[in-house]
Amino acid sequence: MLAIAQYAEVIVDVPTMQTNQPYTYKVKHNFENELSPGMRVIVPFGRGSRLVQGFVMRVFSQASFAGELKEIEALTDLEPVLDAEALALGPWLAQTTFSFLISCLQVMIPSALRAKYSKELELTNKFNVPEAVRAFFGAHTKKLFDEQKVAEPLRSQLLTARRTGMLKLNYVVNDRLQAKQVSFIKAALDKAELEQAVSKLRANARNLHTLLTYLSQHPQAMQQGLLEKKLALSPETFRNAEKKGWITRFKQVQYRNPVRQLNVKRTVPRHLTPAQAAAVAAVIAQIDQQQPTTFLLEGVTGSGKTEVYLQIIAHALAQKKTALMLVPEISLTPQMVKRVVGRFGTQVALLHSGLSDGERFDEWRRIKEGQATVVVGARSAVFAPLKRLGVIIIDEEHESSYKQEKMPRYHARDVAKWRADFHSCPVVLGSATPSLESRARAQKGVYRWLKLPQRINNKPLPQVSLIDMRQEAKKTRFPDFSQALIDAVEIRLAKKEQVILMLNRRGYSSFMMCRDCGYVLNCPNCDISLTFHLDTHSMKCHYCGHEEAIPHVCPSCGSRQIRYYGTGTQKVEQELTQLFPQARILRMDVDTTKRKGAHARILREFGERKADILLGTQMIAKGLDYPDVTLVGVLNADTALGLADFRASERTFQLLTQVSGRAGRAQKEGKVIIQTYNPEHYALLLAQKQDYEQFFMREMDIRHRGGYPPYYFTIQVTASAPAESQAAKKIFETYKTLKTALSSSAVILGPTPKAIMRINKRYYYQLIIKYKKEPGLAACLSELLQKSQRSERTGVLLTIDREPLNFI
Ligand SMILES: Nc1ncnc2c1ncn2[C@@H]1O[C@H](COP(=O)(O)OP(=O)(O)OP(=O)(O)O)[C@@H](O)[C@H]1O
Ligand SMILES: [Zn+2]
Ligand SMILES: [Zn+2]
């Protein structure tokens, strides 16, 4: 039996006073039948009864609450935006990621729904209100009202007038977006009747003639706008036809569907190789048995992992289930999307940052309403409101973009596993270079381990050479190109084959420095140098967005010898045009891909062979499958190795293996040239051999000796404040609390200032807890977090990051 919702527990959205404790509200009679958990409501909160938004977590009919309860003011939704699964996932997420529940609930709904609502006052009795109030309304009877912006004493006068019933307060909930509605038309007559109507038309009624003739051949409903274009008719003609009763017009929700806009050819399942077939069979058995088993699919580059995913998804769909496939944001290339859409058509929904808020909202609704049964998306798509999940796939599972860097600091892999438990379905983690964590779990049997050790058709992996740049840089006129790479590009250009060149930009930037006094141009808000941007002709801070003009004289000594240092893609592009004037070059980096669709366009042009060389940052390392690419060059392999992060080698190895895998995927043999200043480093030597297994062993040994993950769990605690002393004080207090709470087997690294201590005028201090088993730790951290929230007015903030991916 459905309980009548007389009371509701609401998680309120109050940024300055967050708590995971729900508040109980009374439900007004007129909402009793409408209110259900997962809906958003507007409720009065705190002493001033400020109106805020909240999520209903639970409704019930008996309250054991003694005091007087406030009432829910209004409903934001007519239907719950969060289903039962999401309502269960939220608290778990909040607990495991040390986040506030409200941010966990918000992250599950599309940004378009993170509604802004405004208040509106309506004048109901204009004769008895004070003059000031009447003046506020002017000639209107309704006016938007923002408590914060209306000064006293007017504010109090308005509120008093409201209390005494002279004004009414309304909520205008502008869910920033409404579903898009478009006009459709349909013939109201049958074919014979239409033909008869045509014969009776006056000779000069040419437009109506066109329309009716067309309709007599096309009985189905059609979008009016499209028809106007197609038949060159005006809206007037349609209105006339409607008046005469020949057509009916109606509005229909039209989803902005990014898939429909792609012109994708249908593809059929391929005949699987034995290794692929074994992987597919293992996973679909778990779908059928409804087991939440996690698989690690370790397959070398070009081994056909994607085809495995597609056939697993097809099986889930055949069982009337749904499928979720996560890919890193940057590999959501048109190529990848086409492969999925080509197989499953319009039942695919796409969720990624390239979509507008409106498009995402519509995709989300298609999923929620069950129209889309396959979801492909980046990190946050892990929350896609699919029902009856049959399988969750995470491609390139080692990618750090699966971890969100702001609250809630979740890893998509963990959320996927939670959902898999909820739905009793398997999870597939795929990669050519799995994260050490996942590979270690496969070793221990926690994950089931599937392998695709060969490329399709037993194509060899490309041959990789390491070039020692300590020698080479002296030899050529072009500091970024070794002779070997120049020669290799030359040959590919002559053979009309394609080249991918990658400039590794991790931990790296081009900055301005004075040659006379060594002055470096820094951001005024952060402890970091400004980065030079050629296309906007300015200096920018990548942390806070600060931008300023390029200096022509040194601000410190006045010298004109101020120059930029470092290699940017723009500079390399210039070198390339000098080296190979005949080559057609496409550049892909943050600057050329800023505009919507630019990323896709560049890749399409490269795929259509409109360019010979694709030059880019790490963006180009993943997922690309172009048959004519026979050379991959890495200009600077080791910028990341210099970073004091224990994952530096792992990241370097992964990146080099991924990018090498772009070469020689079809008939023609591939070659890879890696330029490096560390040719003896094991990450480079093993990337050269593309030997993941050996790298895994070697790296595990190092992690074991250093006491790093996956041998230890880690948690990073960061304190930040506007003043350095406050941040330091906070982190030392935290340190003391933790020290007494932790067992002797746990280790605390730090406290230390962060590598970039000041960002956007705030100072950052951190400590890292390494531990194996600390049953009391989570509770202790949660309490620290709640406590720090109470002292938030001082501007001191504590953030807690479980298994952080960046340690510096
Ligand atoms: N069973 C098969 N028979 C023939 N060709 C196949 C088969 N499976 C996959 N292919 C083709 O082999 C190529 C490589 O496959 P795919 O891109 O799926 O590999 P991958 O393992 O996902 O690669 P990467 O990790 O490097 O992106 C693709 O062009 C794909 O169409
Ligand atoms: Zn800055
Ligand atoms: Zn100077």
Automatic annotation (TrEMBL):
Reactions this protein catalyses: ATP + H2O = ADP + phosphate + H(+); Couples ATP hydrolysis with the unwinding of duplex DNA by translocating in the 3'-5' direction
Domain Helicase C-terminal: 549-703
GO molecular function, one term: DNA binding
Positions contributing to Zn(2+) 1 binding: C514, C517, C554, C557
Superkingdom of the organism of origin: Bacteria
Positions that bind Zn(2+) 2: C523, C526, C541, C544
Enzyme nomenclature, EC number: 5.6.2.4
GO annotation terms (biological process): DNA recombination; DNA replication initiation; DNA replication, synthesis of primer; double-strand break repair
Domain Helicase ATP-binding: 286-452
Cellular component GO terms, alphabetical: primosome complex
Keywords: ATP-binding, DNA replication, DNA-binding, Helicase, Hydrolase, Isomerase, Metal-binding, Nucleotide-binding, Primosome, Zinc
Its job: Initiates the restart of stalled replication forks, which reloads the replicative helicase on sites other than the origin of replication. Recognizes and binds to abandoned replication forks and remodels them to uncover a helicase loading site. Promotes assembly of the primosome at these replication forks.
Family: Belongs to the helicase family. PriA subfamily.
Subunit structure: Component of the replication restart primosome.
Protein name: Replication restart protein PriA
Gene name of the record: priA
